Amino acid sequence: MSDTRFEMKPIDALAREIGIAEDHVELFGRDKAKIRLEAIEAASKARKAGKLILVSAITPTPAGEGKTTTSIGLAQGMRRIGENAVLALRQPSMGPVFGKKGGATGGGACRLEPSDAINLQFTGDFHAITAANNLLSAVIDNRIHFGDSRIDPLRVLWKRALDMNDRALRKMVIGLGGRAMGGTPREAGFDITAASEIMAILCLAQSRADLRERLNRILIGYDRAGEPVRAEEMQITGSLMAILNEAILPNLVQSREGTPAFVHGGPFANIAHGCNSILATRMALAHGDWAVTEAGFAFDLGGEKFLDIKCRYGDLDPAAIVIVATVRALKMHGGVTLAELTKPDAAAVQRGIDNLAAHIDAASQYQKPVLVAINQRGEDTADELAVIHEYCKGRGVACSTANVFAHGGAGAEDLARQVVATVTASKAGKLQPLYPLDLPLESKVETIAKRIYGASGVAFTAEAATKFKKAARLGYGNLPICMAKTQNSLSDNPKLLGRPKDFTITVRDMEISAGAGFVVALTGDIVRMPGLPERPAAERIDVDDSGKIQNLF
């Protein structure tokens, strides 16, 4: 339920306000709705598409640096200065909500509403993705049970999914019980729903027809001769489409200041491509003069994938890139322990500024204007903030301090003006991805590692090298790369803070996400099913007698 201190607009009124016809709105109560895909085409005939602003960030502290909060603040600030801005954001996964981070709908005066519903079950999209994923799993094992000779039980790639952090489910043996129970024992496991390929597929699909084609292309495993077995052979694509029939529709909600927000899809950026759906982004572009969106974690992960995967498939062309920085994160990169981050230390900010420099350098390679937004916290000092401003001034990069948590859109008016002015003055051409698709897969990995992370080179384990060669032989060599890498460092070692030098990225394995349309290069100890911390957020969340959820943030 919404926070009663904020007067929310009825969602049907908000839809009308941005030009969505009544017959394109499917209401979920008074405060959320699904929007039919026809609304994109209808709006495109009536008005020119808006300009797209990507919000990314520097390498974060464990608590995150407020990309969502800043994105909401920027959109609210733009509306305060007379600009028609609309948000396109990701849905939270319940894994982190009950794990370490808690809710993920922004914070303070920059929060989406109804925040409790969005953070938990929302309109059922994650459940639908989970169900579709697991129906495919069930049919695969059913085919094996009845002797389908096309599937080698020892070469099944497809895993089950659950929208919860549960490390015990990462690897297991299923089908126990012998002939009496009808099982065929084999190794299996679970991914978190945000890492399911069906999540990535939903977020990259541009229509129901495209969704169907992508589901058909899923590589579920190999036969005994080592040849691919695809999901279309299971003959359940129609059923998967039925489960996802409502989930493909973007969701409309609003911020606490009434800014429209299309919230749809939620792949993680350290193990998937980390962006909301192409359809939600197009919906925002169709109904606003400005569409503000974000990509998960820092620019080296979500930002790069947004530009090299999502923009490539969706033919999107951002007008500017905003890098969110915080004083506390720069102090961490300057050598300050997490326990000491609230203590003033301008010298540590100066020592950590190289991390911001690395992300500006990486973003600048796409030939789009780059701005820095300082997400101000209450303990930040004028001296600490001045270090960031002076650095950006020296680089000729626009920089604004945005106190959006406390002041909402009013705290982002300067940032909003700077974004509008920068885009208006820009002469940037159409987005050019970092690498061409005809480059060998291994060379694409090396390009990302060297130009975005600052690595000196890439090492492929023998297993990974063999799989990359097989992927090319099977016809997947022209797909983009999705790097699975720690979010805690520019390198693949989470302990290397700041701007590491002379390091090598080690690719230990790879996976083919043929339906989504990318090849995943796995580095470090990244896993697709997270675990809970020692004291998870789930231990403090409760509901009072009136039905109000407590301690979700």
Look up the CATH topology of the largest domain.
Rossmann fold
Into how many domains do the coordinates divide? 3
Sheet-strand content, in percent, reads 15-25%
- The DSSP helix count reads 19
Describe this structure in words.
With 553 residues, the protein is an alpha/beta fold. The protein folds into 3 domains: 11-123 and 247-425, 3-Layer(aba) Sandwich (Rossmann fold); 125-243, 2-Layer Sandwich (Domain 2, N(10)-formyltetrahydrofolate synthetase), CATH 3.30.1510.10; 441-523, Formyltetrahydrofolate synthetase, domain 3, CATH 3.10.410.10. It contains 19 helices and 24 strands. The strands form 6 sheets. Strands 1, 2, 3, 4, 5, 6, 13, 14, 15, 16, 17 and 18 form a 12-stranded mixed beta sheet that branches. A 4-stranded mixed beta sheet has the order 19-21-22-20. Helix 3 (67-80) crosses helix 17 (413-425) and helix 9 crosses helix 10.
Distinctive features:
553 residues, alpha/beta, Rossmann fold, Domain 2, N(10)-formyltetrahydrofolate synthetase, Formyltetrahydrofolate synthetase, domain 3, 3 domains, twelve-stranded mixed sheet, four-stranded mixed sheet, 19 helices, 36% helix
Strand and helix map with partners:
Blueprint: H1 11-17, E1 25-27, E2 33-35, H2 38-46, E3 51-57, H3 67-80, E4 85-89, H4 94-98, E5 106-107, E6 110-113, H5 115-119, H6 125-145, E7 160-162, E8 172-174, H7 178-181, E9 186-188, E10 190-192, H8 197-204, H9 208-217, E11 219-222, E12 228-230, H10 237-243, E13 251-255, E14 260-263, H11 278-287, E15 290-294, H12 299-314, E16 320-325, H13 327-333, H14 346-364, E17 370-375, H15 382-395, E18 398-402, H16 404-407, H17 413-425, H18 441-453, E19 457-460, H19 462-473, E20 481-484, E21 504-513, E22 518-523, E23 542-543, E24 549-550
Parallel strand pairs: 3-15, 3-16, 4-14, 4-15, 7-10, 16-17, 17-18, 19-21, 20-22
Antiparallel strand pairs: 1-2, 2-13, 5-6, 6-13, 8-9, 11-12, 13-14, 21-22, 23-24
